[in-house]
Structure prediction request, 408 residues.
Amino acid sequence: MGLVHRRKTSVVQIGSLNLGSDFPVRVQSMTDTPTSDVQATLAQTRALIAAGSELVRWTVNDDAAAKGAAEAIRLLREEGINTPIIGDFHFNGHILLRNNPRTAQRLDKYRINPGNVGKGRLHDDNFAQIVKIAIDKGKAVRIGVNWGSLDQELLTELMDANARSSKPKDFSEVTREAMVQSALRSAEYALKLGLPKTKLVLSVKMSVLQDMVAVYERLAAACDCALHLGLTEAGADIKGAVSSAAALSILLQQGIGDTIRVSLTPQPKVPRSKEVEVCKELLQSMGFRYFAPSVTSCPGCGRTASNYFQYLAQDINSHIKLKMPLWQKQYPGVEEMKIAVMGCVVNGPGESRHADIGISLPGSSEKPIAPVYMDGKEHKTLKGDHIKEEFIDILEDYIKKRYGKVSL
Ligand code: SF4
Prediction:
């Protein structure tokens, strides 16, 4: 992670996966299918995993969902897929886990929302029941505080104390404090019940960026538990992706965060795996993890001679996406490769020389030739109607020679 030092957190074992500061920041996602619909949940889960999700969370909201989860996990494991599956519980998690021991056994982690486990004495009783099942079965737990369902009794307690204070704080400040206290008090209780720290993850999700960043910074300073980062209710499309990336990157840059999720509002014809793509793109653009060769391409401008340049950049990206599952197996390290696709001579040669392999297309009023650069040197000049095909051949050849396994 270059100059960024991860905040030290204890390793957390979640099924077959470890997370914490000694491991890469993990990508996770959540299905939006009813978990009682086993086939639909499996199909979406496979797609999320294929896109790169390293943990997948499922809603477990009633008995049918709990039974569906147990069956779906059984089928996944039969297929040889060991990705950890997390059960998302609210209100009745203690009952569902108690009544469905197979579900409790097969899930790898339980998410508990301290604001949704009951009120008064029942709050602690229900919370304790879930934690004790987790301890008994060796499962991890995420205490996931969300400001949309913040523990109202705790908020009232802090509000009352604030009202009595000689220097009362404003409402948003007390809410932030309640978010952090909810996570810390719940974590303390879980540890007191006997849950090892190696099974505990915390999150404090809010939907306003500055609030979310502030509460995670405070939580990170107050404990050494592994943290799951997310901007809750981030919205759809560009808004959701940008606001999530902005919020998460501020924290990641400080070394805070052991696993991330980007919550995008579903849109027609947009696959759920988009949220996984955003997580990966974020981690890769920050230089924390590499998933596929990156393509540097300029935005184009009045010097761009034709839209050939746009299509070439797009085609190279599509080619990478198509070939990556194969390249991953055959060419270890290829994910760190840098490719440049540039629109004219102004920045084309320079950017292409910085990349492992790059092409500078001719801008308007330039000679109709496209120099290709390899490892910082001019390698070949392409021209004519098959520049794309020839560049892809050169790219494939380069990858084979540079990343191909040497057979002894
Ligand atoms: S490299 Fe050339 S075409 Fe691309 S943005 Fe810069 S000046 Fe415009």
